[in-house]
Each structure stands twice: as structure tokens, then as C-alpha cells.
Description:
By secondary structure, the chain is an all-alpha fold. The chain has 6 helices and no strands. The longest helix has 16 residues, at 16-31. The mean pLDDT is 86.
Amino acid sequence: MRNEVLTTLAQHGDDPSVKQHARELAARVMSGTVGLDSEFATGVLIMAAESGETALYDEIQAKLGKARSPEELRMYRAPLAYFADPALVRRALEWAMT
């Protein structure tokens, strides 16, 4: 439920403080310094991706390439579809087509 509340506040409420919190949590997810279940971690990464830049995209894609389980694959693959920058959308499409 926590994931749904955070997602709703970030996406539909357009709450800057929630988005900032998601970016901070995403950094901790990427560094492995926070213990979140994979569903919540995926949601956090998606929220960060929605306003993310190239550096985050590259970091997520690097983690995807090193994923050790189907769960990690899903966690790092899902956010790639949520970047808004047209150049990153194009990169995600090109990646998906290969």
C-alpha cells in the first residue's frame, strides 16, 4: 500500500517533496543501501525516472546489465519506459528492439 500512496502523491498530486523523496530513495536503491522489497523499489525507480535525466537512465541500464535474478531484471527494466526526455525514450525504444 505504501507504494501506491507514494506513487499517487508523486504522479497525480505532483508533490515536489514526494518526488524529491523518491529521487533520494532511488539513489539508495541503486547503491544498495536501503532494504526495500522489489515492488516498492521498482515503484521508487519509476517515480525517479519520470523526472530523471541521462545519468539516472545510464545508471539504471548499467544495473540492468548486471542483474542477477528475474526480480532484479524487472526492477531495473521497468523504469526505462518512464523517462520523459525524448532522447531517452528513443534510447529505451532502441534498446527494447535489440
